[in-house]
Amino acid sequence: MKIRMLVEMPEGAARNGQPWPAQGEMAELPTAEAAHLVASGIAEEVTEAAEEPRPRRRRPAATEAEAEGEGEAT
Prior knowledge:
By secondary structure, this protein is of the alpha+beta class. It has a domain at 2-50. Helices cover 19% and strands 19% of the residues. The protein is built from two helices and five strands. The protein has helices at 31-39, 64-68, and strands at 2-5, 14-15, 18-19, 26-28, 43-45. A three-stranded antiparallel sheet has the order 4-1-5, with helices on one face. The protein has a two-stranded antiparallel sheet with strand order 2-3.
């Protein structure tokens, strides 16, 4: 996942032996690590405008019997 750093990491902070990108710089990180930084407000996800959006799959409509039973515990 590509992210952009929103904050400057403390001097000397490193990730896998490499210094963190400076504020405003981008980096490619594993999804879980990047998602944690985004959720913490330390970084933001970078999306490529040139990338084509992924096709969205539609879920099949529930049958009437399935829809009626949705709120019931099994």
